[in-house]
Design a protein that fits this description.
By secondary structure, chain B is α+β, with helices and mostly antiparallel strands. Chain B is 46% helix and 18% strand. In chain B, strands 7-6-5-4-8 form a 5-stranded antiparallel beta sheet. Chain B has a 3-stranded antiparallel beta sheet with strand order 1-2-3. A 3-stranded antiparallel beta sheet of chain B has the order 10-9-14, with no helix packed on it. The longest helix of chain B is centred in the first third of the chain and has 37 residues, at 15-51. With 329 residues, chain C is of the alpha/beta class. Chain C folds into 2 domains: 3-111 and 253-327, D-Maltodextrin-Binding Protein, domain 2, CATH 3.40.190; 115-236, Periplasmic binding protein-like II (D-Maltodextrin-Binding Protein, domain 2, 3-Layer(aba) Sandwich). The two termini of chain C are 32 Å apart. Classes of the chains: A alpha/beta (290), B alpha+beta (512), C alpha/beta (329). At the B-C interface, strand 2, helix 9, strand 5, strand 7 and strand 14 of B face helix 1, helix 2, strand 1, helix 3 and strand 2 of C.
């Protein structure tokens, strides 16, 4: 409890009532790790963080923590600032001329808002998966090899191995191993998104950011991605933005609820869904608005 | 929300009418496509009908002629190929580079943003500037280099004279006087260095005539050395008049005689040589045409036995001459010799690599290509910008998210994805460049030319100029020749476009 | 000097040397000769260069078509060795040349007649007087119909075809009709391509146009020539009337201007010499009219003597008019 003031550390959880529809899911995903959820080392410290697009304030003085090798879900209605927040973590907002931010955003001791910070190195440590699958118009192999090739030079065999590992990690290897040199655009939507995840992990990041990775996929593909995320949580710190509350409940350890740019509540997923502290949170998770 | 009972607002559009309009639209599209194809077919058809008869290998392999039957496109064809290839090599990197700057490196500051949009607006405006304006710019900037670097023709006006003793004098021929040659070596590289043993200050006008007494020194050689140079047959009759007034059949009679021999000594006003057959020969230095003298490479003796003996070096004795060839010496009795000549080479010009450049550019391929580059650059930039803009933002984000620097993102993601579009723009630009006549006329494209370019400094002819000239001749036979020229022009254009399409396809491999 | 040369040569085996060098002497020349200028003169220079190349393959002759004015711009800057011109050099141009240290030798090479033509269906015109020509073309003229030219002609609109104002042809016509100070009417159909003018006149019954005689000679059936009466009766352009100078004032000399320094270069000297020798024959071949032979001799003499400057302006730079054989000495 180093940061007792952080909203994520509100209360120790109690077992939820059997009435709660999310209880089973919560048990599946999080049970057994309840204690360690809040004890893992802090990966990302957010303190009084505000962000603007021009004069519009998209994020209003947010403070919380993301812990290492946990899945943190950011939920909230459209336009609540959750995607903006995600895109500050790997400084993707640098592409937007009018974007600026204040406060503290610190990843493993690196000040992410420092203008002199090496963005390229940051992005190597923080991979990102986007809402819409964005495979490059290249072969499957070249998609995976794209990131590693940016940073290092490889012998052919090394690169082959790295591509295979990454695809295996993303549970795509078996499906594509015979057509590595075909266009990635020929894959299905779900496969494309897993390819993007494989591409992101191929550079060996510590953190994976996922911006609504399943919103463009059918339910079956969504489930496969969710399985994959569950597998990956043992190796990566994952921050996922999602519209889908069930999804947040199914896969995340910690959930943060954003509303109109402010962080309303953050805490263990099971707590947030079963015993929300704020009225807005309760209304949102029970589907009364959003 | 209106319930099922309430009447719908608005008036129903009759379905037949909507269908009819839809049909008419299709018919309209087909008709306009048909008309444009028809016009093209009629145009090309009439050209092919007219020009086909002239189209043969000789047409492609002949230089221009006043006779329609002999007229060929060789110089113009190769000129255009050189021109367009050079132009593309220059324009593509520059245009794509500018497009990348404008699209990918959009500035953030207010004034920088204004400058950025000002530049963008102007590039669009430049696309509409008449090409002759670019021709005038090209003439001033490329051909003449603002006149700061001398006369573009200076290199052709320069002569390089190899004197009998091997001294090379290079400079501008100022005057060809009966008694001497005046060569201005001002500013000529190596002019002083090559004038062996003489210190000529560069940067001042030096005339051989002014260096009295030195003339003989220049024309002298080491005793025993073989020399060869031309002398005037009759220096009282000016050479040009002899050419001009002689009847045609006598025209080839030389006014210039070649003197070959072995240097013996030089006296004031006189060179004394050992003649291969007669022994001593005196040549007044005043008759020497320095320009045509050259270093002897090979000696040839024609013997009475009809044998020809060649050798690299020669020594002449009282009764015989000794010829050395490849280490073997052969002595020839003077009585056996029927004739002698020496073969050498004029050291004028030198082999130049294809990218050899000198300033000012003059009316060279490079000057023409740079001018055409100005004409097509706006087209290349705008089409490249469109192509780059069409690359989805998600791909840029993906590349950045993988940790790409901006350059890596551009070179590995944006350019390959935009390449098909860029190549389409290049095809359009090439189509414009290949047909341009006006700017080339201004920068000095030639029509009659009897050689093809060998490097980017060569003079050139271009197909549009040639075709226009043929089409505007009084003799109707030339219309067919012009039509044949158009067919070749279109074929070359298709060739360039095919190359661009191949490149495009290479990059399109994975996009679908 | 002469004796010492003869002496030298008598020692050498002169006949043998000559025999050895006969085939070689002209062809051993190398170098480049650059010509540019009038598109009217181009066919002649092209023909000369074509023939020259056969004899002296080592010399590259290049010929451009920047137009008379454009050619002079380059020539007066010293960028070309020879300038093709369909009119004498102008005062401003020779001043420009002087300022860049370019001296030139003026060489007339052929005649070009200006032919004034109408449509063959035009039954009323059988000749025009010089005054009528002036009446038709002077700027600000009231001539709108054929009747305005001559009262007995029909009241049909007159349609005029003219070469481009940049061409030497237009300059020459203008000089004759309105003088150097005047200006030609602007409401004409103008084309740089004389074949377009031929087609224009062929296709319009009420048309009148002018262009080089070569275009009339090639299209005799499609055009009707208008003989011109300049006070000595109506005369139509033919090779004879042009060469003898009776088709005045609409026959003009064509020139090449040679850079005096360039003449010192053997390849230029040889080319110009060959040009003079063959210009008459080749000019006729490409549709122009040869000059009297004494003019070619004078030109050769002027080249040999390096006589620079133009003979077609007076001391004040005003153009001189008259038969070529009188003006050019």
């Amino acid at each position: 409890m180093r940061h007792a003031d952080a909203p994520s550390l509100l209360k120790e959880s109690r077992e939820s009532a059997a009435l709660n529809p999310l209880a089973n899911v919560a048990r599946l995903g999080v049970a057994g790790q309840a204690d360690s959820t809040t004890r893992a080392p802090v990966a990302l410290t957010v303190r009084d963080f505000s962000a603007w697009y021009g004069s519009f304030q998209a994020i209003k003085s947010v403070s919380f923590e993301v812990r290492t090798k946990r899945v943190t879900a950011l939920i909230g209605p459209s336009g609540c600032g959750k995607s903006t927040f995600l895109r500050w973590i790997n400084r993707m907002n640098d592409m937007v001329a009018s974007a600026r931010a204040e406060g503290t955003l610190n990843l493993h001791g690196i000040d992410l808002l420092d203008q002199r910070m090496d963005v390229v190195d940051l992005r190597r440590r923080v991979g990102m998966v986007f809402q819409k699958p964005n495979p490059f118009p290249k072969s499957i192999y070249d998609n995976i090899a794209f990131g590693p090739r940016l940073h290092r030079s490889f012998r052919r065999a090394e690169l082959d191995r790295l591509v295979e590992q990454s695809l295996r990690h993303a549970a795509l290897w078996e499906e594509v191993k015979d057509r590595l040199h075909d266009s990635a655009l020929g894959l299905s939507g779900g496969q494309q998104q897993r390819l993007c995840i494989a591409r992101a992990i191929a550079v060996g990041p510590e953190v994976l950011l996922m911006d609504e990775p399943c919103s463009a996929l059918d339910p079956q593909a969504t489930l496969r991605i969710e399985d994959l995320i569950r597998q990956l949580r043992s190796e990566y710190t994952i921050v996922i933005v999602t519209h889908n509350m069930q999804q947040a409940a199914r896969i995340s350890d910690v959930t943060a609820f954003f509303y109109e740019g402010a962080l309303i509540e953050a805490g263990r997923t099971i707590d947030l869904f079963t015993k929300p502290q704020k009225k807005q949170t309760e209304e949102y998770v029970t589907g009364r608005f959003g | 929300m209106s319930g099922p009972d309430e009447p719908l607002l608005g008036r129903e559009k009759p379905a037949w009418r909507r269908r009819l309009i839809d049909r008419l639209f299709v018919i309209g599209c087909v008709a306009s496509a048909f008309v444009s194809v028809l016009i093209l077919v009629v145009l090309l058809g009439s050209i092919v009908v007219r020009g086909w008869g002239h189209l043969d290998w000789a047409f492609l392999n002949h230089y221009p002629s006043r006779n329609a039957a002999d007229a060929g496109l060789k110089a113009a064809l190769w000129g255009t190929i050189w021109l367009c290839a050079t132009c593309m090599i220059l324009a593509l990197p520059l245009g794509v580079g500018a497009a990348i700057l404008l699209e990918e490196y959009a500035p953030k500051g207010l004034w920088a943003r204004r400058a950025h949009s000002f530049v963008e607006l102007n590039i669009r405006n430049l696309a509409g500037v008449p090409s002759i304006v670019y021709g005038i710019i090209g003439l001033t900037v490329f051909v003449r280099c603002f006149g700061l670097l001398g006369n573009p023709n200076q290199y052709d006006q320069m002569i390089r004279a190899t004197l009998a003793n091997g001294v090379v004098v290079q400079g501008m021929l100022v005057e060809d006087r009966p008694e001497s040659v005046v060569i201005d070596v001002t500013g000529v590289d190596g002019g002083a260095a090559q004038a062996e043993g003489m210190s000529w200050p560069t940067g001042v006008e030096v005339s051989l005539a002014l260096v009295q007494g030195e003339t003989e020194k220049l024309l002298s050689a080491k005793p025993g050395e073989a020399v060869s140079f031309s002398i005037r047959r009759d220096y009282n009759l000016p050479l040009d008049l002899a050419f001009a007034l002689a009847p045609a059949e006598e025209w080839e009679t030389p006014s210039v005689l070649k003197v070959d021999g072995v240097f013996r000594e030089s006296r004031p006003g006189l060179l004394v040589l050992n003649d291969p057959m007669e022994g001593r020969m005196e040549v007044p230095t005043t008759t020497v045409l320095v320009r045509e003298s050259f270093a002897v490479r090979t000696h040839e003796f024609y013997l009475r036995s009809n044998e020809v003996v060649r050798g690299d070096s020669l020594s002449i004795g009282e009764k015989s001459a000794t010829l050395v060839s490849g280490g073997r010496a052969r002595t020839i009795n003077r009585d056996d010799i029927q004739g002698y000549r020496s073969i050498g080479s004029l050291a004028i010009g030198q082999e130049e690599s294809f990218f050899y450049v000198r300033l000012p550019l003059g009316g060279s391929v490079l000057a023409g290509a740079l001018t055409l580059m100005l004409v097509i650059l706006p087209v290349v930039i705008i089409s490249s910008q469109e192509a780059i803009r069409a690359v989805p933002k998600s791909l840029r984000e993906g590349a950045f998210a993988a940790g790409a620097t901006r350059w890596q993102m551009v070179s590995r993601m944006v350019l390959p994805s935009a390449m098909p579009g860029i190549m389409t723009g290049a095809i359009l630009a090439m189509s414009r460049a290949i047909g341009e006549a006006a700017p080339l006329l201004v920068v000095g494209g030639f029509l009659f030319i009897t050689f093809t370019p060998t490097n980017v400094m060569s003079d050139f002819a271009a197909m549009p100029l040639q075709i226009y000239q043929w089409a505007s001749r009084p003799q109707p036979e030339f219309y067919g020749v012009a039509a044949a020229g158009i067919i070749v022009l279109v074929a070359v254009l298709l060739g360039f476009n095919a190359a661009a399409i191949l490149i495009r396809q290479k990059f399109q491999k994975h996009t679908r | 000097m002469n004796t010492s040369l003869t002496g030298a040569l008598s020692l050498a085996s002169i006949s043998l040397l000559a025999a050895m060098t006969v085939a070689q002497a002209p062809s051993s020349l190398t170098g480049t000769v650059k010509a540019d200028g009038s598109s009217t003169v181009y066919p002649i220079t092209e023909a000369v260069a074509e023939e020259f190349k056969k004899i002296v393959p080592g010399v590259n002759v290049t010929v451009g078509v920047s137009g008379t004015g454009g050619g002079f711009k380059r020539f007066c800057a010293g960028e070309t060795d020879i300038s093709n011109a369909s009119r004498p050099i102008k005062k401003e141009e020779s001043e420009k040349a002087a300022s860049s240290n370019v001296e030139f030798i003026e060489v007339p090479i052929a005649y070009d007649g200006l032919s004034i033509v109408v449509n063959p269906k035009n039954m009323w015109v059988n000749h025009l007087t010089l005054d009528e020509v002036k009446k038709i073309w002077t700027d600000g003229t009231s001539v709108k119909t054929w009747r305005d030219v001559r009262a007995e002609w029909p009241d049909k609109p007159i349609r005029i075809f003219s070469p481009g104002t940049d061409s030497g042809t237009f300059d020459y016509f203008k000089e004759v009709v309105v003088g150097s100070k005047g200006s030609i009417r602007g409401d004409m159909s103008v084309s740089e391509d004389d074949n377009v003018l031929v087609k224009g006149v062929t296709g319009d019954e009420n048309a009148i146009g002018f262009f080089g005689c070569a275009y009339y000679f090639e299209n005799k059936d499609a055009l009707k020539i208008v003989p011109i009466d300049a006070g000595k009766g109506a005369i139509a352009p033919t090779h004879e009337t042009i060469e003898t100078g009776t088709y005045a004032p609409f026959s003009r000399p064509l020139f090449i201007y040679v850079n005096r320094k360039a003449v010192e270069r053997p390849e230029v000297k040889a080319f110009v010499g060959f040009y003079l020798q063959s210009a008459g024959k080749l000019a006729e071949e490409v549709g122009y009219v040869k000059l009297p032979s004494e003019v070619y001799s004078r030109a050769a003499r002027n080249i040999a003597a390096r006589r620079t400057g133009t003979q077609f302006t007076d001391d004040q730079g005003q153009p001189l008019h008259g038969p070529l054989a009188d003006l050019y000495q």
